[in-house]
Amino acid sequence: EFMQASWDIEEVQAKGIQHLASFVKDKSAFPYLLTCTEVITLAMKTHIDSLDLQVEGCILLLEILSQALEQGVMMALDESVASCLLHTVRKHSGNEVFLSMLCTLLMMVSASEVAAENLRKVGIIPDLLSVLRRFLHNDKICFSCCAVLWSLAVSENNAEQAVLASALPVTCAVLQEHLQNGVVAESACSALWALALQGCLTDSDYEPTAALLLDALRMNPERAVLVKNGCLALASLVRLSETAALAILLDPKGSGVELIKDEYHLHLEEPGVAEALCLLMNEMVQYDEVMLDMKSQKMEKLLCEIKLQFPFS
């Protein structure tokens, strides 16, 4: 009430945020802090020129959201909060350190389907892509933005195909830049999977995107989630075009089929990886020429192994 009575006075908002932050360590205060997110974001929006207030507000929101996720509480932030966060992104789009923190906050917010929908409604995708292009070297920003893109693109009722299509080259650039960083590559593979599900590729995209995903699998073979999401992304590409299937078979860096076999044997105890590999193979055998090649590479043997390993799945 103290903050709401004096929206226009920056010092009041700063003191209010600082006082709320003093309750963060008190577990019994958590349910009350949950009700303060709108007040905090509105203070940030009202005093958008004050970087100090933005930073303190962002840190407090991160604390509240972290506790919410730890306790399994899904915070469905409304459209006004999403709008405030978008304003903050736009106003401070050149501040790399602050954006790194803000993008982490957006990633946590977008874990909620409702909040992700609200972020999409206020039109945050072009701004995320702009941030990615500007800070392609920053692994934290790339990781968070790709995770947000995945949350925004994976929804089935997506009406923003043209906007999402513009995300493909940026996401591929992130993966190319951070191929050896497993955490970022994993996030980028997830985003590419979502973009492929939405049919955001053109004929000229299938081959280079498939080759890039294979590179990610080769560079990070030990990361089960990356392997799973990379294979799901490849399966979505193959479903759309035989070009992608041929790119997997004929990759100049080595047979994609051999890579699939290696990845399976590396993750024998991971049903999610096996399922993704089966889905990919199922898409590949829809094309006669590809199926003949897979037969010659004795893929039936691998399928029998998988069937024995997971008889009840």
Automatic annotation (TrEMBL):
<dbReference type="GO" id="GO:0005524">
    <property type="term" value="F:ATP binding"/>
</dbReference>
<keyword id="KW-0418">Kinase</keyword>
<protein>
    <recommendedName>
        <fullName>Serine/threonine kinase-like domain-containing protein STKLD1</fullName>
        <ecNumber>2.7.11.1</ecNumber>
    </recommendedName>
</protein>
<keyword id="KW-0723">Serine/threonine-protein kinase</keyword>
<keyword id="KW-0547">Nucleotide-binding</keyword>
<dbReference type="InterPro" id="IPR016024">
    <property type="entry name" value="ARM-type_fold"/>
</dbReference>
<keyword id="KW-0067">ATP-binding</keyword>
<dbReference type="GO" id="GO:0004674">
    <property type="term" value="F:protein serine/threonine kinase activity"/>
</dbReference>
<dbReference type="InterPro" id="IPR011989">
    <property type="entry name" value="ARM-like"/>
</dbReference>
<keyword id="KW-0808">Transferase</keyword>
